Amino acid sequence: MTVVTAPEKTPTTPEAPRGARRTVHPLVFNLIALVLGVTIWALTAVAGLADIPGPLSVSSRARELLADGTLTQDALASLQRVLLGFALGTLVAVPVGFLMGWYPVARGLLEPYVQFFRTIPPLALIPW
């Protein structure tokens, strides 16, 4: 007769020692930050520390703009501008990148401009 010896089953996750701290789910911190931010915003608006509308008036106005279609129309117009800018930038940048990679002369001529424009923060390029 053969005796089969199997290893003893061990739990895959070790037990936490007594008195160990439980970890808090990361979304709890996100929720706390969101509630704290909206609370500070509301208190700032009520106290008159800044000339800003409160969260309730902003959400009310957003519902109005959403109901009459203005918010959707303006958001789609903004999205169209962003996508058009991305497409035009891609149409210019990809061929220029290939030229710079293939021809050292093109790289020498265009590299200073590429490096110059890389240092400008994207928000600085927004027309006011």
From TrEMBL:
InterPro entries: MetI-like_sf (IPR035906)
Transmembrane segment boundaries: 27-50, 82-103
Keywords, alphabetical: Cell membrane, Membrane, Transmembrane, Transmembrane helix, Transport
Subcellular location: Cell membrane
Domain of life of the organism encoding this protein: Bacteria
Gene3D superfamilies: MetI-like (1.10.3720.10)
SUPFAM superfamilies hit by this protein: MetI-like
Membrane topology, record value: Multi-pass membrane protein
PANTHER family from the UniProt entry: ABC TRANSPORTER PERMEASE PROTEIN MJ0413-RELATED, ALKANE SULFONATE ABC TRANSPORTER-RELATED, MEMBRANE SUBUNIT
Protein name: ABC transmembrane type-1 domain-containing protein
Native species: Streptomyces antimycoticus
